[in-house]
User: Fold this.
Amino acid sequence: MRKIILLLFILQISIVSLVAQVQVTSLLVENRQEPLGIDDPRPRLSWQLLADKRNVMQAAYEIRVSPDVKALKQGKNLSWNSGIVQSGQSVLVPYQGSELAPVTPYYWQVRVRDNKGKLSKWSEPSFFVTGLQQAANWQAQWIQVGFKEEKSRPSPMFRKEFNSDKKLVRALALITARGVYEAEINGQKVGDLCLAPGWTSYNKRLQYQTYDVTELINEGSNAVGVTLGNGWYRGNIGFEGQVDVYGDELALLFQLELTYDDGSTAVVLSDGSWKSSTGPIVYSEIYHGEIYDARLEQEGWSEAGFNDSAWRGVELKNYSKDILVTTENEPIRKQEVFHPVEILKTPEGDQVIDFGQNLVGWVQMKVAGTAGDKITITHTEVLDKDGNFYTESLRSAKQQNTFILKGKGIEEFEPHFTWKGFRYIKVEGYPGELETENFTATALYSDMEPTGSFECSDELVNQLQHNIRWGQRGNFLDVPTDCPQRDERLGWTGDAQAFARTASFNFRVHSFFDKWLKDVVADQYENGGVPFVVPDVLNNRQVSPGWADVATIAPWTIYLAYGDKELLEAQYGSMKAWVDYIQHVSRKNLWRPKHSFGDWLFYRPFDDNSGMSAVTDKNLIAQAFYAHSTQLLIQAAEVLGKQDDLNVYQDLLAKIKHAFTQEYMTPKGKLVSGTQTAYVLALHFDLLPEELRDQAAKRLVDNIRLYNTHLTTGFLGTPYLCHVLSRFGYTDVAYELLMQKTYPSWLYPVTMGATTIWERWDGIKPDGTFQTPGMNSFNHYAYGAIGDWLYRVVAGIDTEADQPGYKAIRIEPQLGEPLTHAKAELKTYYGSVVSGWKKEADKVKLQISVPVNTTAIVSIPASGAAGITEGGKRLSELKGITLEGQENGRVLVQIGSGDYLFEWAN
Ligand code: RAM
Assistant:
């Protein structure tokens, strides 16, 4: 009996210590889970810690890496053993082992010691696979079709048979195209990517993808087939009808690396032995859609034994391989699936399907009919006020897919090299009745990890948050685009900078921006100017304030959100070149640009004779962004320890600010433009002398009241409007703006049934008529930048700038009427941060979660510390919660990791 008790006791102790042990999970390499195609010689490793106690920090780590997973677990055959490193760093730790071989899997694991002296177990092994690393490792050759193309440019197909006779350990395929591609091996699609290789500044950087295709290879004979589409490469891209922006011929580069269990290797390469043809995709354009003729399908074309005697050879091409880069961001994948919510007949007699959500992607259709039956699906975002199918705002984009049946049983269709922005489709030529089960809409976007959620007591605000997220989904399709439906879909720099911080809450956009910012660098003019759009297909060599400033704003924002110093270092030259450009074209420290979009799409009354249009002086805007970009450059110089630059640009900033006040402000602090945007920029960028800031904030509020408590800001003022109000003590006014339901406001489109953010405050007017069709997208994320304020101020989750990436967290919710609760969650690299408040009859509750290996300052809106409890106990009774003092009528406490519930009297 005694023994049993003793045994139970020992068991209990070991269970307790097991539970108490810190655990290592969620291993990432270069921000992604088990990525393929890592070409960085020092890929950065991150992990998360779990613990069930409070105040747990990492004190030390040990990492080991090996090309052999079994050896790894025994600590043998290591390409890197970090040894025990006394460090709290658990995010973006660079690999420092022996040189990584190309196209090779590496396994790794990590263990840590926490601040209580406890050692974790080794994590489960994770892995990454290296890419080709350098141009010389490409043995494949560029190939192109061996026949004269038809004018309509049907999608070319390539094929090649090969043998794989030994026992296979691993097969890795490396593929790219000048164009977009889909590959198959033995009749099965390679990977689950769409629109690969994605879009970059193709003539300078072309991405290739790495796939593990081991499962697709047969022992014996095999075949590979690849179809190409025009895509961004040579399709129509740009609103001036541009085609062939990067070249007029499509080409393929394919390399398959086979590793056998006897240690030998083999390759299958695109070369002169391949064959080419065309097939069912007879036309394919991003804006206009695809024509697919199923009668032209060539069954078995990507399988061994297919009779390709009618196929032609290929032409070898000498295109550069030096511009090839691995894919660093999450690829485009199929995401949510929508079913029709209604099938309707419009007054004009069209058969229309409503999917209930404005989304970006394509429609899959099932149909049975006779050979030659032609079904046309046209996509659009809205119906007009009479309920008719409205396409005028698509401008020249046809947004139409056509499917021609082969007439054999039930046929299933989806397009390949195009995508559509839509909620409604019009179906023509469908044999028989339209049935709900025969149509689905699939969303497509970059496969970013969803990281944020925001929810509150007001359903309209929740719908606004839904719309912001869908605006992001639809416009984060490999590059941040302005809109996904009309003949544009371009990487407009102004839109991207305005929305970047909000984007970083909703999804993990670290790698997404990392990749795109490299294109910003690639397309930056040699004089430092930054184009309107990136990749730069407009090529007009113009810059605009608030657009070009993406070069400083986006890197700084991504640095704050993810703590990536290497990214900041990589962008630093571009940031500096941009500021130097402005300095160069400025006179007497004043920037008066030749071109400016101004505060794009600011408020104009329906009847513009009232004199109430909120026009902000374009030069004032330029000067404000000049200062802001310089300020961000200074901050980057500080982080990166560039002392010389620091001095130079601090000096410059003082001059820019002085010039601002001299030129655009009266001695009493009134700005030459009395608009909200003018005051917002001046205050947010700290351009006014301190003693004049409060009166300026007051003028801002007066202006808001002048418009009967409505915002009047455009793309540039909107992101900062509520932040400025809350910073200067007008959170109540910010809430009033948030809750405003009449035009112009965030909720007006919501009341009009919007499911995404509109380009204009009044895309649809109260009487149901539309704004000008030439510029009226219903899926434009810029005004969704209010999301940042919802997360950072309403819920109150922020990072301290000196320990970015939420290593040191700031929780400072600002409660406001009429909300009774609000809650946000953000999955950081360290784990989930939660802040949720709730007002009850007599008290307020604040629920907080702080991840292991981080700390937080919580700013509680209570009048004194004495009245605050946590978990039912007074603060003074609790260890590990430090009272930091009081600030602006709030109590500051410092806490470590763990879950907390603070309460205080209402
Ligand atoms: C429009 C775009 C974009 C904006 C520019 C100035 O064409 O849609 O949103 O940045 O113009």
About this structure: The chain has a mean pLDDT of 96. Residues 333-446 form a domain with the Jelly Rolls fold (CATH 2.60.120.260). The CA atoms of residues 198 and 509 lie 16 Å apart.
